[in-house]
Design a protein that fits this description.
mainly alpha, 3 helices, about 0% strand, CopG domain protein DNA-binding domain protein
Amino acid sequence: MTLTLNLTPEIEQYLTQKATEEGLSLEAYALKLLTTIILEQKKQTKLVNLLQSWIDEEEDQEQQETGQYLIQALDEDRLSDRSLFPSQLKGITW
């Protein structure tokens, strides 16, 4: 596929300089940039989708038990007698 771009003089100068530094033609350097950006966006989209799938999954028993253990451990390992996660605020502030 052929693609024609109308670049500002500043962008053309920048691309030409970078292409020269890498020993590439302007077209090869522009293609390299586009390919890199597209691959990074695909990777980012995959990661976002993975994180979203983790968020969307229902918590299983092990995750709930781990969460309860962490809350208990944080409350017990404090210098203050004040609970960090008071049960009366569960579902309100945590």
